[in-house]
Amino acid sequence: MLIDIGTGSGLSIAHSARLNPAQFFIGVDANPRPLEKISERIHRRPEKGGLPNVLFVQAAVEHLPSELDGIACQVHVQFPWGSLLRAVATGEPLPMRNLRRISKSGAALEVVLGLDPVRDRSEIERLNLQALSADYIKSVLAPRYKEAGFEIVDQAALAHAGRGQMNSAWAKRLSFGGNRELFRIRARAL
Ligand SMILES: C[S@@+](CC[C@H](N)C(=O)[O-])C[C@H]1O[C@@H](n2cnc3c(N)ncnc32)[C@H](O)[C@@H]1O
């Protein structure tokens, strides 16, 4: 079971579900509007584009429903913005504990995030974010993730060239222009 938090339009997770029919996927987003069409489409017959192995849930990371407790082997947060960005970029206790709550022990958490100091300046100021760096992840985020029940096992800066290949609508958009350095954090639920 893979749960994608801040799934956006749901198209990326539907694509994964189509490629991996034996795995179940749940896409979660606080904003229901972009999920309306796809939520309807997945219930069609398979030959009409239906997908029996995916479900979409409207929920904010701050209020994940208890039905998701302890069911995820993988949790993804890709290109978050707003309060979801603040949650994973600062290791905010409540939402991070919620991510742990929906994870099985040993589950893999993958976070991909990036900030452009110029283009994202107002959001950086509004959310009171610090610049991302390998040192920040190691010295500030790792202890906060640990407090929430995740051990960071790997972090990497993602090359600009590979972004178009990522299964994320936003990765493709962000591969054009800007100066956004992307980081991928991998953690394990303790
Ligand atoms: C830039 S989009 C990324 C969409 C998708 N993950 C992708 O990579 O294409 C960020 C998403 O985070 C969602 N989001 C923001 N704050 C959230 C929160 N507190 N809880 C859940 N989703 C949130 C937004 O509604 C938006 O759909």
Task: Describe this protein's structure.
The chain has 190 residues and is α/β, with parallel strands linked by helices. The chain is 32% helix and 27% strand. It contains seven helices and seven strands; from the N terminus they run E-H-E-H-E-E-H-H-E-H-H-E-H-E. The protein is globular, with a radius of gyration of 16 Å. The protein starts with a strand and ends with a strand. The site of S-adenosylmethionine has 21 residues, from helix 3 and helix 7.
- The CATH architecture term is 3-Layer(aba) Sandwich
Count of the separate structural domains: 1
> So how many helices?
7
Low-confidence stretches: none
* CATH class category name: Alpha Beta
> Alpha-carbon distance between the termini?
18 Å
Small-molecule components bound: S-adenosylmethionine
Q: Give the mean pLDDT.
A: 92
Question: How would you briefly describe this protein structure?
Answer:
The chain has 190 residues and is of the alpha/beta class. It has helices at 11-19, 36-41, 82-90, 93-101, 121-127, 134-148, 169-174, and strands at 2-5, 25-29, 54-58, 72-78, 103-115, 150-158, 181-189. It has a seven-stranded mixed sheet, sandwiched between helices.
What features would you highlight for this structure?
single chain, 190 residues, alpha/beta, Rossmann fold, seven-stranded mixed beta sheet, globular, binds S-adenosylmethionine
